[in-house]
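User: Show me an example of a complex going from sequences to structure tokens.

Assistant: Sure. Here are the input components:
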Amino acid sequence: MTTTLKPVDAVLVGFGWTGAIMGQQLCDAGLEVVALERGPWRDTSTDFSTGFAQDELRYMWRHHLFQNVTYDTLTIRNNTSQEALPMRHLGSFLLGTGVGSGGVHWNGQIWRFLPSDFLTKSHNEQRYGKKAVTDHDLTVQDWGITYEELEPHYDQFDRLCGTSGRAGNLNGKIQPGGNPFEGPRSNEYPTPPMIQTYAPTLFGEAAARLGRHPFPHPTGNLSQTYVNPLGAQLGACTYCGFCEKFGCGNYAKSSPQTTVLPYLMAKTNFSLKTECEVLRVELSADRTRATGVTYVNSAGEEFFQPAEMVILSAYVLQNVRLMLLSGIGKPYDPATGEGVVGKNYAYQTMSSVNVFFEDKILNPFIGAGALATVIDDFNGDNFDHSGLGFIGGAYIAGMVTGGRPIEMIYTPEGTPDWGLEWKHAAAKNYLKSFSISVHGSCMSHRGNYLDLDPTYRDVYGRPMLRMTFDFTPNEHKMSDYVTDRAAEVARAMNPREIKINRRVGSWSVVPYQTTHNVGGAIMGVSPADSVVNKFLQSWDVPNVFSLGSGAFPQNAGYNPTGTVAALTYHAAREIVTRYLKTPGPLVQV
Amino acid sequence: MSGSDEAESGSPALSRRRFLIGTAVAATGIGAATAAAVHDGELGGPPATFRGAVPWIEGTADVPPGASGTDYRFFTPAELSFIQAAVARLIPNDAVGPGAIEAGVPFFLDRQLAGKYGRGAHYFLGGPWPKGTPQQGYQSRFTPAQLYRAAIPAIDRYVGSHFSGRSFDKLAASDADTVLRGLESGAIALGDGVDGKTFFTMLLQNTKEGYFSDPIYGGNRDMAAWKMIGFPGAHYDYKEWISRHGEPVPFEPVSFLGRPGWTRGAT
């Protein structure tokens, strides 16, 4: 028995960063908006107050804020010759759920992609030849949008968050102390960069000695108090070292809770329904229009919510799955290369270098999610790739996100994982070691994709999403090359020793890497090779919009949230200024 | 009041758990959760609709589900003997710092396995159950509690047949280490549906959790593991120390339960 509800102008499926931003924009335009979130309500004072936020066991290892895979998971495999099996426990990525979702437990690393990142195919083909973008069965594409088009919306997100940083390129003029490789910014960061602790300072000094260009990582951990354009007040970061995997008890990390919700929740044309999971998008008989969504709540009651617009604002994996379950767009087939939904799933290529000092006390527990000194000399196409045999790159960050002891004790090469020798190494090195992060791009590949699993089903009887993914030779070569550059900086710090943790072998679901899953609902210039247009509007069902990193045709060497948010603002502007007047395709083909 | 953790109940008695934890920690500086409202980030509550204001309900802080009491609730005496012998080899005691026994790891493991973690909260255990590749991670049908229950006697059977009828807890340290290394590498096949390597990975991870987690969960006794490495614990403000490069931070560790000399009534 399905109860049909009163129609609304727009329904948001999922209520994290993209849902909050889009909800605010549409409500300001006067629309009646309802957001459906499958997880619970969460807020700072009740769910991650400073009295108990610094709990490594509960939040990191018992997954208290994360998606509970008991009820919903996906299946995984490295290639089509394998049988996909369920991800039975979170590991490689830590999926969000609940109000604010990953925006609650992210690190607050706020990046813009490079102008050339949006032209992955044409730019690299022009500079390095056709083979560079087709070798190893790469399926990289241009985004169909430029950095210049997105810049005002990157800026909008910076002002929402109060991002702390120093511009490296203001309107085309290179600025001292910032990232000289970044695209031109129209404005300086809203707040100054965080003050660097010892390890990032040593990293920056060593990098500068090598002729690199160190600068402070842009952060959503705020260097000072800030009131954003929606009137939300953020606090100053206290460097407690509990950001990623944790909620901020101090109102000092940009999140939907600290930046949007105080404003949006007060709106009388906005409703939020929690513990409500959308089962599918309903389409008209001719499948050219969405009529609304069917959802079930935690009491087991089923509803049909009619809506003029359906906004998929869940995580990439859920957005793609809902499209596949609802029959929106043609599913991708890796054998033929036909179809688009699920195509070009990609990830992030991570490696690191641990640095051990004999006598320097680094106090790694004084940290923040984005507290780092970074060099961008080997990211994107900031360096000449001629003869290297790969495209893409990585930023190298001397980063101290915290010193949480179950997760973040580094021991020298050859140390066993247990026994007296391990304990002695932990005791000796904890205060005097840290990790340099190599945060690499991940190009798209013909064999990496998302579809529906033929065997495993969720608690509602729906097929699970199936992820087929492995790192390709392009990613291994890129990662090895930039990891070597990171090791150079590590050695220039004159430590007692270093330990290089390369990206080796096939992708594994076990060790945590990043929650930067992208692609599968990719944007582009043509329905032949993309799922959505540059305004994140479905080519097939134009009153459906799919937000988030699913739109990335491949992943750049940066954290995705800044670009996810900018794309959302860009889509919202177009919906409000054009679509509402004349509903229909925003790009004609 | 027999205990404050949710482990005593097979069902998620949320309101009771909240109330009991609230009263257990109220005196230590954590806000008391005295209301019986359901508000849990893991299991969810009834569906709710919010409109026109940021919702806030007094007394619904999602405080940590700490352990209390000293009794064992999960391990049988034989299992406890194995656990004590095994964790004493994983993290031995010496002058540098506490061993796992001295840090209270067996008690921590007992409460974890008797509670939601042991029951497989945040695990998907549905079938079918092919073995899979190492890259596909945990593929057992067992909950963590079931895996411990199955693995411990299987290891003792293996030890009995290879070490003249002894059980694991009676082995010399070097023999115990040999067995643990065999489990770690996968060289020892236990049979009976138990993957020794999977169990070892879980045991080692859980042991380190008990060693380094907040003492509210029953391990890391006296915060001695934190003292050993120099981690100050549940501090949330280091602003004054950001620019004091290379200086030792002189803070005594603090836990959610406070610390001696700071929290009235704490020992």
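The lines above are the inputs; the final block is the predicted structure for all two components together. Chain B has a mean pLDDT of 85.
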